[in-house]
Every structure is written in structure tokens, then in C-alpha cells.
Amino acid sequence: MREWLEAARRAEALGFSTFIAQDHFANQLAPMPALAAAAGVTTSIRLATLVLDNDFRHPALLAKEAATLDMLSNGRFELGLGAGWLGADYAQTGIPLDPPPIRIARLRESIRIIKTLLASETPVSFAGEHYRIEELEPLPRPVQRPRPPIMLGGRQRAMLRLAAQEAEIVSISLLGQGGATFEQKVAWVREAAGPRLRNVELHVNISRLDLSGTPAEETPNALVGSVEHVVETLLKRRQEFGVTYYVIKAAAMDAFAPVIARLP
Q: How far is it, in rounded angstroms, from Cα 236 to Cα 211?
């Protein structure tokens, strides 16, 4: 835990905008209490999940936890959600890994419930195919109004379309391209978002960061070259694709700090 809290403090001191927790049944902290602890040792950095598996929690419980964390952090929480994908998580817990259309349909209902509970000031009812709630009081209420921003992540067209229609932050996964290029995935998001695209932030995970290497063939999830070259690359991708939200590994925070200092 000491390493986790120190990483949160360090990220804030170096100027990073967001501190993130993942959601897998591996050797890692549970994301929501871990972020609550991080909120207690920081004052300005935002706190996010990237991303919570929808199948692990009922949306009514998750809405309550999200509102609580937003309150504890004084309005710094971003709720990242996904339909679930890692087979080991399901196999080891006995949770059924349903086909993608079912998981996405379940997530769609969860989003509707969570959005309503986070924004409402009156009791909420919902009757769907996968979830049902009756006159549930939406307490506590989050600090951010109408609600904390939602991130949805995915790599296939159906999931990215849902993200573009529902989320403030769209995480474009590059794990197994799924037969589509990054450019195609951005096009799917733009098409599905329509007029709301101006209010959507695009996100990519950086899997390779080398600030001392020779610039190589550019890929969306790699940043290689000098600090100046990486800054130019990020600005170019912002202009060309609208990508403004990047996540790097905690071990690379210090190396990446000079890039943050130079970005406008």
C-alpha cells in the first residue's frame, strides 16, 4: 500500500492529470478502495478506473461506490467501465463469460442505471432484461454535477459505438486489433458520436515508451524518440485524430514528466 500511495503523490507532483486503477483478479489492489486511499493523500489529481468489468458488480452498487468516491475526493472521480474480456478473471471466479452481444447489452443497461442514479435527486426505478431496481434512493450524491464523467473502453465496433454514444471519454483499445486499424476505430467513434463528438475525449494506452530511442515507425500506442519528438508526435495526433488522453505505466512517470512540462 505504501508504494501505491507514494505513486499517487508522485503522479500529482509531476503534473499528471489522472491517477488510474485497473480491475482484474490478479496481484493488484481492488480499484475503488485503492482510489479512495489515493484521494486521501492527494488534492488535485483526478482518480479513475480503467476500466471496471461490468460483470463483477451490480450497477446500483457501483453507482453508490462511484458517488461515494467522488464525494471523498471532492469531485475528482472518473468512472471507467467495460463489458469484460479477460478470460482468466471469469475462469478463476466462476463468473460466466457470456458472448459479446450479451455482455454489451448488459453494460448498456448498467450505463443507463448508473447515469440516472448519479444524476437524480429522486428515487429511481428501472426494469430491463438484465437488471431491475425499485424506488432506489440515489445516495450519497456526487460532488460533480450532473455526475462524474464516464469512460467506456473497447476494441470492437459494437463496443466503440456504444462508448461514442454514451461516454465522455472513449478508450480505444489496441489489444488485438480485431481486423481494424486505429484509423478505422477512430472513424467508428466519430460516426457513432455525431454532434456530441465535440464533447468526447479519446484515450489510448501507451504500451511502449522510450525517450532515448531513435524515432521508429509510429504506432498509436508507442512513443519513441527524444522529448521534443514525442511532444511533436502527441500534438500531431491531437490534431489528426483528436486523441488527448494517454495512459503510461507508473514506472515511466519520472521519464515522461519532461514531456508533460512541454505540452501546451
A: 17
The H or E element spanning position 240 is: helix 227-241
- Domain membership flag for residue 254: no
Helix (H, G, I), strand (E, B) or coil at 184: helix
Give me the domain span that covers residue 33: 1-143
The H-or-E segment that residue 79 falls in is strand 77-82
Asked if residues 70 and 77 have their Cβ atoms less than 8 Å apart, the reply is: yes
CA atoms of 229 and 121, how far apart (whole Å): 49
> pLDDT tens digits, residue range 175-212?
765 578 999 999 999 999 999 999 999 999 999 999 98
Residue 198 near residue 229 (C-beta atoms within 8 A): no
Structural domain total, the chain:
1
What is the tens place of the pLDDT at every residue in 77-125? 999 999 999 999 999 999 999 999 999 999 999 999 999 999 999 999 9
- In a domain, residue 59? The reply is yes
In contact, 111 and 166? CB cutoff 8 Å:
yes
CA dihedral 104, 105, 106, 111 (to 10 degrees): 80
Q: Does residue 172 contact residue 182 with C-beta atoms inside 8 Å?
A: yes
Contact 76, 47 (CB under 8 A): yes
Here the CATH number for the domain that contains residue 23 is: 3.20.20.30
Helices (H), 75-226: 87-93, 100-119, 157-166, 182-193
Phi, psi of 88 (to 5 degrees): -60, -40
